[in-house]
Amino acid sequence: MTKKYIEKIKPYVWLASFAVFTIGSFWFGFDPGKTIYQSFTKSFIEMITFIPFLFIIVGLFDVWFPKEKIEKHIGKDSGIKGILMVVILAMLQAGPLYGAFPVAYILYKKGASIKNIFIYLEVFSTLKIPMLGIEIGYLGLNFTLARTLVALPLFIAIGYFMEWYLKNRNFKINDV
Amino acid sequence: MNNALIFISLSIFTSLVSFLLDKKKTILGFKKGFKMFKNIVIPFLNILILVSLLLFIVPPQMVVKYLGAGSGAIGFAIAAVVGSITLIPGFISYPIASGLLKQGASYSTVAVFMTTLMMVGVVTLPLEIKYFGKKIAILRNLLNFIIAIIIGILIGIIL
Hints:
Chain A has 176 residues and is mostly helical. Chain A contains nine helices and no strands. Chain A has two domains: 48 residues, no CATH class; 111 residues, no CATH class. In chain B, 86% of the residues lie in helices and 0% in strands. Chain B has eight helices and no strands.
């Protein structure tokens, strides 16, 4: 019971101590505390003016382009269409990289090519749409565009390289 | 502010189109989006606190010295190594990256930091080994490290 309770309030500890620290700083006229608070407010406004809207777009994307539908199209299709599908599928995901490994296993089971599996992992780790949205917000559209355009050909190259390297080496993915 | 305008108009536009096409789906999309937002908002606030603290503690001169345009290969190497060994969720790393840029770090250094952060997972390597085996997992991360460096250099040239 208490353990569960601790888990529940844990994320708020930082916030609460920061609130206490800030109130204290203003009360006692502690200037560094005020400066930190001002910098926090600035970045908070920066964040709250675009992140909620980003998630509206992401949520709508999620219902209009369901991942399950795209997964069906990957299969053995190893042509350009297959690559395109894998890139789109990976871009639609969310979450940390360790969430991508089980999906890679499923793709492997469904008969996706080696090339596409590795392209999936690369794109998943760096070009997910929600992340790109946040990146545009923080680092600007130019940065994100440059990074995407530079990265994508390299990722496809990795896919081809891995396929060539693993062709006769008994490639398999384990179910963990 | 510019950013906010882009995202607000884009979200209004997509919502409108989606709403006209399918009311039910649109509401479901809103719900999904809100759920995702709810999941990240507290960790996000925490990281904003941390970044505000760091911006105060770490003097800009130091960031410029070690990660700025004049820091050359050393700054680049520091960013690549730190990015490879740390595990920071993507969305959380962007406020840090933007803070680094504001403090005077160069674009290529920030790019290599971000890309190694995302692509090279020393911490997740044991898990990756379980799925792919030692050889493939290490090879993939090694290739990713090289590619992250190429990406960093190219972005430095482009921007």
